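User: Here's a structure from my thesis project, written as C-alpha cells. My advisor, Dr. K., wants to see whether a designed sequence matches the one we expressed. Can you design one independently, without my sequence as a hint?
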C-alpha cells in the first residue's frame, strides 16, 4: 500500500521530463532542497524529524541515469554522500559501475523519495521516507532532468511513484521487469529491490533476479551512460521464465 504523501501526482505519468519551456534548473532546485527543513519545522505527517535534516541528492541537468531510491541511511546522513555503505557496494556491483562512475553527477542522478535520513524504528531498521518530501520537491526535480535515458526504481516507495498502482507487492513488480522495460520508451524504466542486506533472503528465494535481470540491467546502464540519448538499441533479456 502506498503511504499518503508518497503517491505520484495525478494524472499519473512515467516520470517523463517536462517540455523544454517548463524545465527547471536542476542545480537551483537541488540547492533549495538542500536547505529544506520542512520535515522538522513544518511536518505534515506525524512527529517532526528528531534530528537535523540533511537532504542528500546528486545529479545535473545532463544526467542520463536516474537512481530513484528510498531514503538516505545513517552513513549517508553523516557524510552527505548517497549509498556510501554496504548497500551502495552491492548496488554498484549490480550496475557494473565503479565508484567514480557512480558518483559522476554529470551522468548519474540519485533522488531518494525522502531526501533526509528518516531515523530508526524500534527494531533498528530505517523508517520509511518522510512523506513531506516527494510532494514538495520530486516533480520539480524530475523536470530538471531532460536527458534521462534510464530510470532505476528501487524499492516499493519509488516504484509506487514512478510506476503507479500495480497488482501484488515488490516481488511481483520486480518479476514484471520485462513488461515494464518494454512498455517504457525514453526514459526506459527498470524496477529493482533495495540492495540492503535485509533483502538477502529475498535474493536467495528469487535467483532469476541475478541470473536474468542483472545482465540486462548492466547492459541498459552501460548503454545509457555511453550512447547518445534515444539512439541506442535496446538491450534484450532472455525469454521470460516461469518465475
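Assistant: Designed independently from the structure alone:
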Amino acid at each position: 500500500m502506498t503511504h499518503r504523501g508518497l503517491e505520484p501526482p495525478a494524472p499519473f505519468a512515467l516520470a517523463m521530463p517536462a517540455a523544454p519551456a517548463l524545465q527547471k534548473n536542476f542545480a537551483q532546485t537541488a540547492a533549495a532542497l538542500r536547505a529544506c527543513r520542512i520535515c522538522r519545522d513544518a511536518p505534515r505527517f506525524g512527529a517532526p524529524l528528531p534530528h537535523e535534516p540533511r537532504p542528500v541528492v546528486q545529479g545535473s541537468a545532463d544526467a542520463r541515469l536516474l537512481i530513484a531510491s528510498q531514503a538516505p541511511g545513517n552513513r549517508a546522513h553523516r557524510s552527505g554522500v548517497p549509498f556510501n555503505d554496504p548497500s551502495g557496494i552491492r548496488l554498484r556491483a549490480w550496475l557494473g559501475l565503479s565508484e567514480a562512475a557512480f558518483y559522476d553527477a554529470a551522468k548519474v542522478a540519485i533522488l531518494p523519495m525522502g531526501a533526509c535520513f528518516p531515523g530508526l524504528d524500534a527494531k533498528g531498521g530505517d523508517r520509511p521516507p518522510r512523506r513531506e518530501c516527494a510532494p514538495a520537491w520530486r516533480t520539480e526535480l524530475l523536470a530538471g532532468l531532460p536527458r534521462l535515458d534510464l530510470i532505476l526504481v528501487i524499492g516499493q516507495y519509488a516504484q509506487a511513484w514512478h510506476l503507479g498502482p500495480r497488482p501484488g507487492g515488490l516481488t511481483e513488480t520486480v518479476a514484471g521487469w520485462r513488461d515494464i522495460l518494454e512498455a517504457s520508451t525514453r526514459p526506459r524504466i527498470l524496477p529493482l529491490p533495495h540492495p540492503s542486506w535485509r533483502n538477502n533472503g529475498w535474493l536467495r528465494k528469487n535467483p532469476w533476479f541475478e541470473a536474468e535481470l542483472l545482465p540486462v540491467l548492466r547492459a541498459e546502464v552501460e548503454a545509457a551512460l555511453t550512447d547518445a540519448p534515444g539512439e541506442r538499441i535496446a538491450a534484450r533479456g532472455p525469454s521470460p521464465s516461469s518465475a
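When you compare it with your expressed construct, this may help: The chain has one domain: 23-226.
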